[in-house]
Write a structure and sequence with these properties.
By secondary structure, this protein is mainly beta. It has a single domain, classed as Beta Barrel (OB fold (Dihydrolipoamide Acetyltransferase, E2P)). Helix content is about 10%, strand content about 50%. The strands form 2 sheets. It has a 5-stranded mixed beta sheet with strand order 8-1-2-10-9. The N and C termini lie far apart (about 40 Å).
């Protein structure tokens, strides 16, 4: 009997490779025009208009407390549906869709510190680097700090 596998949409934030389950991903778009929202949570980059639907754009660099001062020429929007919410995760670049076996999923390494310990579910060891699996529900929860 074959082991269960899961597909992940993978993407980069700087040199780090992250993934979110494909079942949450609706589409991937080039950088969209973002309308800033005054007094919004720092993780909120702004709002985008996706074919008439107004969607909150979450800057994952800021959410994960990564260096957001490095200019990114063309960022990418990953449109994600979590529970009843549709949001955009703003990332540096999209990578591959990876299909990985559940048995190879590992808990967080002790070296992972800070907010990432709360927002990352676990890791997969790929041939060239670690794939950090995000928990989209926790990303959207402003109480998770």
């Amino acid at each position: 009997m074959a082991s269960e596998s899961v597909q992940f949409c993978t993407f980069y934030l700087g040199e780090l490779l992250f993934g979110v389950e494909v079942r949450h991903v609706r589409e991937v778009l080039r950088e969209q025009r973002v309308t800033r929202v005054p007094l919004a949570h720092p993780m909120v980059s702004g709002l985008i208009n996706l074919r008439g639907q107004i969607i909150t754009a979450i800057d994952l660099r800021k959410r994960l407390n990564l260096d957001s001062s490095i200019p990114q020429p063309r960022r990418v929007n990953i449109i994600v549906k979590v529970d009843q919410s549709t949001v955009s995760f703003l990332v540096d670049a999209v990578a591959e869709v990876e299909e990985l076996q559940n048995y190879s999923f590992e808990p967080l390494p002790e070296t992972l510190k800070g907010i990432a310990r709360l927002l990352v579910k676990g890791v997969y060891k790929l041939p060239k680097q670690l794939l950090l699996i995000l928990n989209p529900e926790k990303i959207l929860d402003p109480q998770t700090t």
